[in-house]
Amino acid sequence: MSALPNAHEALLRNREHIVGRLALLGLSDTGLLSALPGGGLAVTDHAGVFAAAPALQGWRTAFGYDDPALQPGCADTIVVFLPKARAELAFRLALAGFLAADGARLIVIGEKREGIAGAVKQVKAVAPEATKVDSARHCQVWLADGFATGETFELQRWMSWHAVEAAGVRVDVAGLPGIFSDGEPDQGTLMLLETLAEQPLPRGHSLDFACGSGVIGCWIQAWQRSAGIEPSPIDAVDVQSQAVLCAGATYRRSQAVGDVLASDGLAAVTRKYRAIVTNPPFHAGVRTDTTMTEQFLRQAAAHLQPGGELRLVANSFLPYEAVIRKTIGPVTRLASDKRFTVYSAKRQT
């Protein structure tokens, strides 16, 4: 078995603290499951991790925070792995309280560089007796017995709405803890939207890759309506559960046309498109990681119709232009400043 993430290794080092029925919140590597033969419930918000989960006896896997496998009082030990976003930790702790049986044990594990020390205040808000029981694998492990539980976990209570406006067109966008740019418009996305008004995508079925809250697809269709153009369908795809939930809600409120899909990269995408538009991620946890986008660019040509356009915005320091040129075709910079650049490339026939 390949090396597990540090937080997963830290749990294995402290497996003697696991009692009764186990629930894992924030699974990022399915290799952990085979190392814990007692079974339990494993929750991940990553579509690729969920798809890769092996069929192991005693284990149930759940995708995201609205999976039917999430049942009240189903766990005696709940392990919460620290997420990147502090707001998402509160989200996971609330779910932990919903899953917890009476007198359940809470274990919170996170890397020091990801801010576990700063997260302790949040942990103690629901588990005042929490104590640090280990510091290993660059992680801290906190444990509490009998923490604050809740009878309900209602996703809609956590969902917020904010407006995004560009080129005089406004759309309402859903947000959940942990989603990219939750609660405020991302400046790179706004630059991208401006170029979409000045130089529209080719007409036809399009794809918004790494769609986040669904703002790009909804805004394009709202702009088309404002210009008296019949909206073209735009599918939306993202790897994260919260993004898929938010994009679906945003599409419904905007009456946008297109499918919303959970997919690790383009694995679940079968259609060829007239255009693919994206503001792709470049972080894995706290690290800069362009692997996902570089893999996407290599695959994107197969999902573009001949002459179809890729429209991508990225931080200007990221080395995407050469990869786009190699995988799609000649590249044009439609807009650029010190922070962001919008690229356009058309698939060569």
- How many distinct helices? 11
Residue runs with pLDDT of under 50 for 5 or more positions: 283-288
Mind summarizing the main beta sheet?
A: 7 strands, mixed
Q: What is the assigned CATH homologous superfamily of the largest domain?
A: Vaccinia Virus protein VP39
Instruction: Count all strands and give the number.
Output: 18
Number of structurally distinct domains: 2
End-to-end separation: 43 Å
| Mean pLDDT reading | 93
The percent range for helix content is: 25-40%
Q: Give me the oligomer status.
A: single chain
Strand content: 25-35%
The largest beta-sheet arranges its strands as: 3-2-1-4-5-7-6
- CATH class of the largest domain equals Alpha Beta
The CATH architecture designation of the largest domain is 3-Layer(aba) Sandwich
**Structural class assignment:** alpha/beta
> How do the helices and strands follow one another from N- to C-terminus?
HEHEHEEHEHEEHEEHEHEHEEEEHEHEE
Give keywords.
single chain; 349 residues; alpha/beta; Rossmann fold; 2 domains; 7-stranded mixed β-sheet; 11 helices; 31% strand; elongated
Would you give an account of this structure?
The structure is a single chain. The chain has helices at 6-13, 31-34, 47-52, 86-99, 116-126, 155-158, 187-198, 215-226, 241-254, 291-300, 321-327, and strands at 22-25, 40-44, 59-63, 75-81, 100-111, 131-136, 139-145, 160-166, 169-175, 206-209, 234-238, 260-262, 273-278, 283-284, 287-288, 304-315, 331-336, 340-346. It contains eleven helices and 18 strands. The longest helix has 14 residues, at 86-99. The strands form four sheets. Strands 3-2-1-4-5-7-6 form a seven-stranded mixed beta sheet, with helices on both faces. It has a seven-stranded mixed beta sheet with strand order 12-11-10-13-16-18-17. A two-stranded antiparallel ribbon has the order 8-9. Helix 4 (86-99) runs parallel beside helix 5 (116-126), helix 7 (187-198) packs parallel to helix 8 and helix 8 runs parallel beside helix 9. It folds into two domains: 6-155, Rossmann fold (3-Layer(aba) Sandwich); 159-346, Rossmann fold (3-Layer(aba) Sandwich), CATH 3.40.50.150. It has 349 residues and is α/β, with parallel strands linked by helices.
